[in-house]
Amino acid sequence: MDVRTDIAGLLAGPTGLDPAAIRDLLETPPDSRMGDYAFPCFPLAKTMRKAPSAIAAALQDLIPAGVSWLDRTVAVGGYLNFYLDRPAFVRRQAEEARQAGDRFGASDEGRGRTIVVEFSSPNIAKPFHVGHAFSTALGQSLYRIHAHLGYHVVRMNHLGDYGTQFGKLISAYRRWGDEAALEAAPIAELLRIYVRFHEAAREDPALEDEARTLFRRLEDGAPEEIALWKRFRDLSLKEFGRVYDRLDVAFDNDNGESFYGPMIPAVVERLRERGLLEESEGAFVVRLDDLGLPPCIVLKSDGATIYASRDLAAAIWRKEQYDFDRNLYVVGNPQSLHFQQVFAVLEKAGYAWASTCRHVGFGLVRFPDRKLSTRSGDVVLLDDLLQECRAATREIIDRNAAERGMNWDNDLKDDLSERIGIGAVIYTFLKNSRDRDIVFSWDDMLDFDGETAPYVLYTYARARSILRKGEAAGVLPAWSDHPSAALAADDEMALARMLEGFPDMVRRAAESCEPYLLTRHVTAMARSFNKYYNNESILGAASPELVRARLCLVDAVSLSLRVGLHLLGISAVERM
Fold first, then answer.
1. Domain boundary at 255, 270, 294, which?
2. pTM score > 0.85 for this model?
3. Can you tell me whether residue 310 is helix, strand or coil?
4. Which residues span the domain enclosing 220?
5. Cβ(1)–Cβ(93) under 8 Å?
6. pLDDT tens column, 206-246
7. Structural domains in the chain (count)
8. 73 and 170, same structural domain?
């Protein structure tokens, strides 16, 4: 039940406004004594040629009697205030959530439409660091949110498996590679020799020329270089798969940049045919001066391909393969110019669908005392971060269990530590607008009273505990028409309004590609529930009917928390 939509329906005829415009104008009064919703009449004064107060009074007279969800309307000044029938509203919101179950907030608005989401995209032969984790968490949430709305979502892992860096890696492996180390810990060994190459290249710049030659041989299909490249790729994919399993992330397609190499000549030919390709200092570029952008390099001076040429081929292939309605690139903000150039070249090349491609950028990942750089070797690996977070969470769980006399076995503690720890990391990425940089702080991430995953997870577990205790006592959620079962307290109304707003928040998160909107809504709901828990007795309510009715609300809230956490990529826990 979306009351805003219902109010808009009542006012559309008398005001002549579009219902969507009325929804946008509706306000929530700062004091519940002033109503639950308020419609400001000031924007109508000019067209209706009346004072806002007269318009409000006139509209009040036109509201029909007997509206089931409405208690009364009151015209005050230039506002028409709507007072809801609170017990009916709370009951309706809770029941809609409970009946929807895990489909709460879902819709079929995306039916028949395809969205491609490119995310994660780590580089082969390099460790999976926390920078890639940002893309992974953001992309996974966008996938789940859009799928919840009925879209067919194709998850693309555009692996960085091509480029001059592989010439560097092949050169480094032939010089300093340790076969035993490669078998034992492949990514660590590949990182070691990659870092050593850059150290050596500072002293001997000729190594850079050698790397470019080796990459060119790789592009030309030289058997020895291809064999090494395939080995590095297979070892990396195995390592990445372990990380993805831990995060409960999967992909529908993991074509790397190399997959699109054979398609680039056709792209180059199309650009030539349209007179877009120009030679510039030996390289071939597409001029974008008319858009205020620097030229987009398509082929380097040695004829080698570049990121842009491979992304052009990839976008064309995706459109042909999936006929997408939207093509989202979840890639860091530093690549903003790159995507502006790629999309502009696609449009100039005559691809009308270029406008459906969107760069979903995000900020940097920082630690107070550490920077991320693969070349220097000073990286923060996601695996290490997850392990540290899991260990820190286990300490908290052990301490809390001892204080509360909970005799939990180690398997349960391990499972809780893993899920809460991973949830804390994901929540940190999705807590704020994606454009903001992320600064990891253990104290903030694992604060069970702050805006964190542990706080929301604990709230969910608390709600489930209340329901289990009720069931153990033979008291199950149920509604009654007895007056004593009416849920009309301010805290109950606040929770019902949070339930009402959940579906709209899912839609807004999808439209803006901003999961943080959902993160904040779920966190606000958790805060509202804890306030309710502290202010009102649930299992000790004044009548059996009231207990059962409150359990219905608790059930609905717990369900919405679980669904919200799932859409963020966080697994709920039943007890803490």
1. 255
2. yes
3. helix
4. 163-255
5. yes
6. 999 999 999 889 888 899 999 999 999 998 888 899 999 99
7. 3
8. no
